[in-house]
Amino acid sequence: MTTAPQQNIPAAAPAPAPATSMVAMVLHRIHTPLVQEERPLPTPGPGEIRVRVEACAVCRTDLHVVDGELPDGTYPIVPGHEIVGRIEAIGPGVTGHTIGARVGIPWLGHTCGHCPYCEAGHENLCDHPEFTGFTRDGGFATHVVADASYAFPLDGFDDPIEAAPLMCAGLIGWRSLKMAGDGKRIGLYGFGAAAHLLAQLLRWQGREVYAFTRAGDTAAQDHARHLGAVWAGASEDAPPELLDAAIIFAPVGPLVPLALKAVHKGGRVVCGGIHMSDIPAFPYSILWEERQIVSVANLTRADAVEFLTLAPKAGIRADTITYPLARANEALDDLRHGRFQGAAVLIP
Fold this sequence. Notes:
23% of the residues lie in helices and 26% in strands. The chain has nine helices and 17 strands.
């Protein structure tokens, strides 16, 4: 009887030790660069989940946080509120989420649930809210802890980089559009991350997009035309047709009277940003004839469910430029100076 030769079978490699720390880009004081720090890996508390960040888009609101233009911020803070990642740990009392599932985390991070606004279904106006990347740490990091009730399943979204801008630019664009109404001709002032997503939705709906940019910004105007805008020009220009509504995404107060002049009688101007420079005085004649000015504040969870259901049907695709997490300051600076089209996305 012969014996089979002995084989040298290598021992299985030991499983990697679970991570015990994370990396975050931290804002310690306004008007200062973010600082890269290593921190202990946080444990989610009751009602919370810990998410391993796959991508976090960079929003103009992050610039407002860095510049101290929003009241009642918390510092030090990890910015970032357009987060896509995988659930890594689940705290006590959480239902409806599973380990490994992909979720999106937006700006509105928690509401009290019992103030008059919450009870009336207007949680976006909550008296005691928390905001991701502003009053609770956000997604400019390898990991983030979120209120599980404000994390949205992204089962049908295969690309976390493309999905990340949807979590604010897309959501606030959707809420702004709902407030703008059902008109056919829609003007978009400031053709950045939100406008380039909303333009795709408008064209899918069969509406006309009129894009307004800074004078001389031919790159943004070409981008708008590429996405189906029927007209693109400077914000100071009059559109070829009076508009049914205008949405202002640029944080520039003088755009309000310009937009009022561009809408027809009964038209509406929607201010879609969280911050805007002062609106200059303007003659009552351009507001008369039942024109309206309204603002958009935050979002509701219902907005998120609606938009995240609609976006795949409309074939919305984010144009993105990616940066490693450690280059978050560069991404912010490029956004500030308009050095790219679409949205910047940080990759841990």
